[in-house]
Design goal:
The complex is a heterodimer.
Chain A: H1 6-13, H2 17-50, H3 56-96, E1 97-98, H4 102-108, H5 117-128, H6 133-142, H7 157-181, H8 185-193, H9 198-209, H10 211-227, H11 230-235, H12 240-249, H13 254-278, E2 297-298, H14 301-332, H15 342-375, H16 378-387, H17 395-419, H18 433-458, H19 461-469, H20 474-503, H21 506-511, H22 519-528, H23 536-569
Parallel strand pairs in A: 1-2
Helix pairs in contact in A: 2-13, 2-15, 2-16, 2-17, 3-7, 3-10, 3-12, 3-14, 5-7, 5-14, 7-10, 7-14, 7-20, 8-9, 10-18, 12-13, 14-23, 15-16, 15-18, 15-20, 18-20, 20-23, 22-23
Chain B: H1 2-24, E1 32-37, H2 41-55, E2 58-63, H3 68-75, E3 83-85, H4 89-97, H5 107-112, E4 124-137, E5 160-161, H6 168-181, H7 183-196, H8 205-213, E6 219-223, H9 224-232, H10 238-243, E7 244-247, E8 258-265, H11 272-282, H12 285-294, E9 298-299, H13 308-311, H14 323-327, H15 330-339
The chains are: A mainly alpha, B alpha/beta.
Chain lengths: 570, 344
């Protein structure tokens, strides 16, 4: 780091106490308000749960929850195994080595994120189930009489693990890659000099250092799995989330459903805390002078092509195959020539909503992570944790919980307007797109906070100490040091949030205003009828809308690291 | 400073957005009607377009697959909802139980909709009918008639396919079984049906035809219209329909289990007159023909012909059990499915 010249030091030191105080107060106010916003739907769910239905529990405990918890646990374990291995493995390969098509794979690897999970589930059933393309091929090419016994049954728990795992691994990939990029070169070089094999390098150096990112990536992937209903229902996996639904709809007990939700939320919180506890008091910062990338190792021959193959497999399974199938369905159904003109409008609405929600989510995430970094008090820690809770609530439950507080605000607004002699203004929040943006922000704030905090964890205190010695206040510190270093984390979070908003289904279905359709809800109407091919073009549009920012942001994240690469090779 | 500037921009964007959103939030309009629907928009939109053409009333729509009655209830007195359209009886009853409905009071409806397909108190009316019946292998199943009771017969061991027992259509069928035979008998029956299943329940109704065509099972339970859709509209699934036949199952001492897609008038409907106009229009000749030919449903209005493909199934003998009675056993049916581990 270049030494700060005198002017900068003086500028940082110049005392502006009033401004600083007001800024701090403002930050605190924002953090508290956001925590309150996220708490609102949770409180409303707890209130609903409180209303009782005690008689339901013996039944649930005897017949529903044991199976639901077992299946959910197995599903989560399986998905964790796939997303963890694939995500970390591919991130390590593309960051540490150079091999054929590595640059293309850099932006191809995150692409499965752009495809909604349940769509991929439908595609795989169509391809691999009885009478599907794969079986017809086996029959035609190899003359196997009953190929059904040769292929795994996609409509099963292993099938669900496979499908969900290969769609969600980019969560781990992206956070692991962001970290490997910031990995301390000397540590790796030292290990290499000491003769560490490739595997030991991963096991003893890379993985331990990547733990904060792994924790964030894995928890995002697993919470997304918990949120899923479409894929697991279709594939015949009885998850806890599904039992929340059946309890609400078929057992006609919203309180019962709310109780299961609270129970689930408690377990999720316990797990998150356990993980945090596990890595308390460990430093993951990189010494200031070492924050550069290791020079990549160039692979040759069959090893190089093996690396290409290993990285290509998840792209094919999670993206190319489903997208190819959607393209095939679009052409076969003539969806392009019979183009539904409303689709263009839906696409614009979807992107606008996602962009608005992403901007707010990133800004709030940045404020909360910064406040947490500097205040470190119990209150800030609590607020930051509370603000991350939204992701642990299944979308539909969140939507149901959010409606009541929104309507309360709307009713207060109406009362105020009437007080001044105006006519009723209807449901300003609950009945407009504002409800959607608020729901997206609550739901995806955890991604933003989580990635920024992981980003902060990688910034060593050396910088802070140096800057503070020179008299920099928190604001100057944030502006001149943290924000630039956080750039990959900010872009990574923006990308994940944006794509998640594009795909968001359950909350959107329940909260969108009259005549508003997003691409995801448009596709879903065909999927519920069991004829999802009719929505293939819209599904492709979701993918396309996600692909462009993914490619763009992969480029930015790499550019952000570029000077370091040059520095290391110099 | 870029951060602060960005913040200002975001704030302005959000404020601007809110103003636009406020404009989109619906307030009572004299020539509009607001519909919350469980029917997929693409399916129902042609009906609404035709209604608008006939009457000049614009239809605003929200479609979803669950939670609409809860949304209306939470929205309370300010809810823009006028009409709720459902695809089964359970949701109609839920709407009534939540207190979000009002009696529709229409002579036209009372004249057109048979008493067994409407609420005695007038809170909901069926507008079209679907039958839950049996798809059977053309090759392996010679019989042309079947009863629901017979699904428990051990001769079908390992030969039945079905989707989740908690799915609304199965829930209604099992509830009808309870209404006819009582809970104890229904439990025995469900246990025996479970023992006959070829595989764990999964997929949708189309997969029933697929699995039969693939030889995984011989018969399966599904709704009438899927078969017609696969045969006539979905080229890649036509072979599944062609390998199967539709058998109009009945209760041993009754008829075929029918479910309704129905309609409710919201309690705080801001456009009530238009709402009633729409509901009456839905059971009119024009709409009923559309239901029959576009969605392959059974029209609720007598005198409207079913689609030829549906007519090919044979003569339908609907069960006489009033639909309202089925809804009473919805919860019991859901509990039985859990108890016998039907989906496990």
């Amino acid at each position: 780091m270049s030494p700060l010249d005198n002017t900068t030091a003086r500028a940082m030191a110049s005392p502006r106490p009033l401004r600083l105080i007001s800024r701090r107060t403002a930050t605190y106010a924002v953090v508290l308000a956001v925590a309150g916003l996220v708490l609102a739907p949770i409180v409303s769910i707890v209130v609903t749960a409180w209303r009782g239905d005690a008689e339901l529990w013996p039944h649930l405990a005897a017949y529903v929850l044991p199976v639901a918890f077992r299946d959910t646990a197995l599903l989560l374990l399986g998905v964790a195994a796939i997303t963890g291995t694939v995500g970390v493995g591919t991130a390590w390969l593309v960051t540490t080595y150079r091999f054929p098509f590595r640059n293309a794979l850099l932006w191809l690897l995150p692409l499965p994120l752009a495809t909604p999970t349940y769509i991929v589930a439908y595609v795989y059933v169509d391809l691999f189930d009885a009478l599907g393309f794969a079986q017809r091929m086996l029959q035609a090419v190899f003359g196997i009489a009953s190929p059904a016994t040769w292929l795994i049954n996609v409509r099963s728990l292993p099938g669900a693990i496979f499908v969900i795992g290969f769609v969600l691994y980019p969560y781990v990939y992206l956070s692991a890659r962001a970290l490997f990029q910031m990995q301390s070169a000397p540590l790796i070089e030292a290990a290499r000099i000491l003769g560490a094999t490739r595997w030991r390098l991963i096991r003893d150096v890379a993985l331990p250092l990547a733990r904060p990112a792994l924790a964030v990536g894995l928890s995002l992937a697993l919470l997304e799995t918990l949120n899923d209903i479409g894929a697991s229902e279709y594939l015949g996996v009885r998850t806890v989330t599904l039992s929340v639904f059946t309890t609400w709809l078929n057992r006609s007990s919203l309180p019962g459903a709310a109780q299961i939700s609270c129970f689930m939320l408690a377990i999720v919180m316990a797990l998150v805390m356990l993980e945090r506890h596990g890595r308390r008091r460990r430093g993951y910062g990189i010494p200031a002078q070492d924050a550069r990338m290791t020079a990549p190792i160039v692979l040759h021959g069959s090893t190089a092509w093996l690396a290409t193959f290993v990285c290509a497999v998840p792209v094919v399974i999670g993206f190319a195959l489903p997208a190819g199938y959607l393209l095939h369905a679009t052409l076969a159904r003539g969806l392009l020539s019979g183009f539904d003109p409303a689709l263009g409008r839906h696409a614009i609405v979807t992107v606008a909503l996602a962009a608005a929600a992403t901007a707010v989510t990133i800004l709030l995430g940045l404020i909360i992570a910064t406040a947490w970094q500097f205040a470190r008090g119990r209150l800030m820690a609590a607020c930051s944790n509370v603000a991350s809770l939204g992701y642990a609530i299944p979308g539909t439950v969140l939507a149901l919980g959010l409606l009541a507080p929104l309507v309360l605000v709307d009713e207060a607004l109406n009362a105020m307007v009437r007080l001044f002699g105006g006519a009723g203004i209807g449901l300003l929040l609950a009945g407009s797109a504002a409800a959607l943006v608020i729901a997206y922000v609550i739901r995806f704030l955890a991604i933003s906070i989580g990635l920024m905090r992981a980003g902060f964890a990688r910034i060593t205190r050396d910088f802070d100490d140096a800057a503070r010695l020179l008299g920099a206040g928190p604001a100057a510190l944030a502006r001149t040091i943290h924000l630039p270093l956080l750039r990959p984390a900010v872009w990574g979070a923006a990308l994940l949030v944006f794509v998640d908003c594009l795909k968001e289904l359950p909350a959107t279905l329940l909260l969108r205003p009259l005549n508003v359709e997003t691409l995801a809800t448009y596709v879903y109407q065909f999927a519920t009828r069991g004829d999802f091919e009719e929505g293939a073009l819209a599904a492709l549009l979701i993918v396309a809308a996600g692909v462009l920012p993914i490619m763009h942001m992969t480029g930015i994240a790499d550019a952000a690291m570029a000077p370091d690469v040059e520095a290391s090779s110099a | 400073m870029s951060c602060a500037a960005g913040g200002g921009l975001v704030a302005r964007l959000v404020a601007g957005g809110l103003i636009v959103f406020a404009a989109t939030s619906a307030i009572a309009q004299s020539d509009e009607v607001n519909v919350y629907t469980y029917r997929e928009q693409k399916l129902i939109q042609p009906l609404f377009d035709a209604f608008t053409k006939d009457t000049g009333i614009k239809v605003n729509v929200i479609s979803a697959s669950s939670g609409l009655e809860q949304r209306i209830a939470t929205e309370g007195a300010n809810s823009p909802a006028d009409v709720l359209l459902t695809v089964d009886i359970g949701r109609l009853q839920d709407a009534v139980n939540l207190g979000i409905t009002q009696p529709i009071k229409s002579e036209t409806l009372d004249k057109v909709v048979p008493p067994q397909y409407r609420d005695p108190a007038g809170n909901w009316y069926g507008v079209s009918l679907r039958a839950r019946i049996v798809y059977a292998s053309k090759e392996r199943v010679p019989q042309t008639a079947i009863t629901y009771e017979e699904l428990a017969d051990p001769k079908w061991k390992g030969k039945i396919c079905i989707r989740s027992g908690q799915y609304i259509y199965n829930n209604a069928l099992f509830a009808a079984y309870i209404a006819r035979h009582g809970e104890a008998k229904a439990e025995e029956w469900l246990k025996a049906v479970k023992a006959n299943l070829a595989q764990k329940p999964s997929g949708g109704d189309r997969e029933v035809a697929r699995d039969i065509a693939a030889g995984k099972c011989d018969i399966g339970v599904a709704n009438t219209y899927y078969w017609a859709l696969m045969l006539n509209r979905e080229a890649e699934r036509k072979p599944w329909a062609e390998a199967t036949k539709v058998v109009l199952a009945t209760f041993a001492d009754g008829g075929t289990h029918m479910n309704v897609s129905g309609v409710v008038l919201a309690k705080h409907s801001p456009n009530k007159a238009n709402a009633v106009k729409l509901i009456e229009w839905l059971v009119g000749e024009h709409a009923q023909h559309m239901y029959a030919d576009m969605n392959y449903e059974y029209p609720i209005r007598s005198g409207v012909a079913v689609n030829p493909t549906i007519a090919g199934y044979g003569t339908l003998k609907p069960d006489s059990l009033p639909i309202a009675k089925i809804a009473d056993h919805k919860k019991a049916a859901a509990n039985l499915v859990d108890k016998v581990g039907f989906d496990n």
